[in-house]
Amino acid sequence: MDAGPPVGSAAGAGWGGATGPGSPAHDPHPASVRPADAVDGLAVPPSPAGAVAYRVGADGTAEPVPRQRPAAPVAVPAGQAVTAAGSAAGGPGPTGDPADAGPVVPAGPRPEPAVDDPAGPDLDGWQGAYAEAARDVLRGIVASTRDPIAGGRHKVFGRVDLAVVPTTSTIASHLPRAVGLGLAVERLRRMDTAGRRDDPDGPPRSPWPRDAIVVCSFGDASVNHASATAALNTAGWYDHTGLRIPVLFVCEDNGLGISVRSPEGWVERTLRARPGVRYFAADGTDPVAVHAVAAEAAGWVRRHRRPAVLHLRTVRLLGHAGADAEQAYRSTAEIAADEARDPVLATARLLVEAGVATGEELLARYDERGWQVRRTAEEVLDEPKLSAVAEVVAPLSPRRPSRVAAAVAQSAQRAAGPDAAGRVEAFGGRPPEQAGPLTLAQSINAALADGMLSHPQLAVFGEDVAAKGGVYGVTKGLRERFGAARVFDTLLDETSVLGLGLGAGLAGMLPVPEIQYLAYLHNAEDQLRGEAATLQFFSQGAFRNPMVVRVPGLAYQEGFGGHFHNDNSVAVLRDVPGLVVAVPARPDDAGPLLRTCLAAAVVDGTVSVFLEPIALYHTRDLYEPGDGEWLGSYAEPSAWAAGHAPIGRARVYGVGSAEDVTIVTFGNGVRMSLRAASTLADEGIGCRVVDLRWLAPLPVADLIREASATGRVLVVDETRRSGGVGEGILAALVDAGYVGAARRVAAVDSFVPLGPAARQVLVSEDAITQGARTLLAR
Description:
Elements: E1 52-56, E2 62-66, E3 104-106, H1 126-141, H2 175-198, E4 214-219, H3 226-240, E5 247-253, E6 256-257, E7 260-261, H4 266-272, E8 278-283, H5 287-304, E9 308-313, H6 332-340, H7 343-353, H8 359-381, H9 389-393, H10 401-416, H11 420-426, H12 440-454, E10 458-462, H13 478-482, E11 487-489, H14 494-507, E12 510-514, H15 518-521, H16 526-532, H17 535-539, E13 547-553, H18 571-574, E14 580-582, H19 587-604, E15 607-613, E16 651-655, E17 661-665, H20 668-682, E18 687-691, E19 694-696, H21 700-710, E20 712-720, H22 725-735, E21 741-747, H23 765-777
Parallel strand pairs: 4-5, 5-9, 8-9, 10-11, 10-12, 13-15, 14-15, 17-18, 17-20, 20-21
Antiparallel strand pairs: 1-2, 1-3, 6-7, 14-19, 16-18
């Protein structure tokens, strides 16, 4: 039950204030639910799931809601947004007071009952619904391509039409996303409310029902995990600041983490102690009590728009999973005691005591259902499995470069046309293309501002990005220009910063979180690997969390050193399937690369890391002090399309004859290599300097072309020799059949020390020139 909002609606931490220019209140199609005919994305509409559904109110009562079930999913018409209830905004869905409305729980179609079915005729459709649900679960277990959520890639639970988001096996890693989704859903609700005041007949600003809440579940052992601690802390922290976050955490407490027992009373004490998070508890083996308390908890979260936790004490039947034999660590008496508390038995007792059915009737129904499940299992075993690489990776990270280019061009047309006056005003009367040559930091700042103007759903957030304007001034002035609803500071926790981004992207926004330093990303990298990069893979693209993560990093800072502020380790990023990694070195590349990352997020749901070389932020000179040759001009909107930088395309500089050596590099290596190439040119050695710009995916085609042009390749890699980018470059050359000479200059396998000692382990200009001479001497 990850961060899907199957139950309700609400505001945003840091996202609850007034809007600035280009506020999301003016965008009817958030990034994750773009209409099918939009050039910058395809919608994945939820399909209604049954002929009968039930709306459950906060008091626990239910009423039937008729529903049609189409034969196949249908496209969402342009101008409508998908809601959590599986209807288009403006169509059937929750109505009335947000505090009283409840989730729509669909039932399945009405099959004709078997003549000897002990359960009798399926009058309300529930039997068909459960049969369908069982088939879907079994399809996931056998990795059938007909599994409706993952398509045979993993056994996850998820339903698009119910807004049930699939989760991975990583303990509690989905909880930070749930918190982010709650903040974003509430923020969008408030934007929708404000927009309707201004334009009552206008399109909806939010794809979610107005009373939506987020429900996420986890186990008792997960209470101790850092991800759970981060999520609960963040929820309470934002509640303490007065910002609303409608999230219901559900802890399923069976007292065991595989074989490790939760100490008696520990889980309750831990959950009760969370400031700002309301505590509810029930006996999970008592269906009546669970229903009553769950309705109370959901109703409280729905009414107050605040976080709560529902603590359910449950039992675990059989082992943890697979070959886990619980008899090795549990006594027979303990196992028997849990079996006696089986919720299925408790439900049977209630039905017999209420006179609804006899024990014999229930046993007959139980046996019949067991045989139905067995027959279904035998049927799904023969269903097709994924059988080709292309099938497996299809939803991993879609690449539609022509649509991304078209989205950039459309942004340019708007900025140069109907939005031109507003753009000039947003830049205080002097747009960046008129401000003269800019540094890398200034160019990124201008590109972020243009991005916020082009994408009204975009929000910038992180530690110190708002009031301070970033540690290096890269986000300076953005909050004043666009308002605290779109540019805001977060608490100091990288896991939560990325969780906010994951939830915001899932909710329909375009998040641009900042991790203050590359070394700090390692505290939270599972949010990228285990959550961000897997969502489309495990949902066949039905769910996505578009995001551009800004990360200042790499080495060569002067006067501010140490390995935490000069981290040159990017191996963990290049190892994440589908993750895009961009590294702008030149100021005039910053804008094109950032625009591409933003457009790819909107079009394809791409998750990108925008790795910014700190040492180049304020660099002005290239060859001589005062030459200003590292500064760059900022392109005016009319030139954005022509200067588009597609994902996986390099930039090449020719120095001298450019016929002798090809130097392949990125980041700080670009400036050092250009300086080294100038020195070599004085010796009559011509160089091609290839700025990769993209570390994932590597620009292999450009790399091979430029390597073949000289037959001599020098890889200048400022990351470490082991696991560094250079290994990938050399492997790409070998895989392509390159037969020329190759050499590598890379940083030593060491953390970056403080002060002048850093020069001993990092790549230098002298090492580059000597490497080139060695290649020529072969």
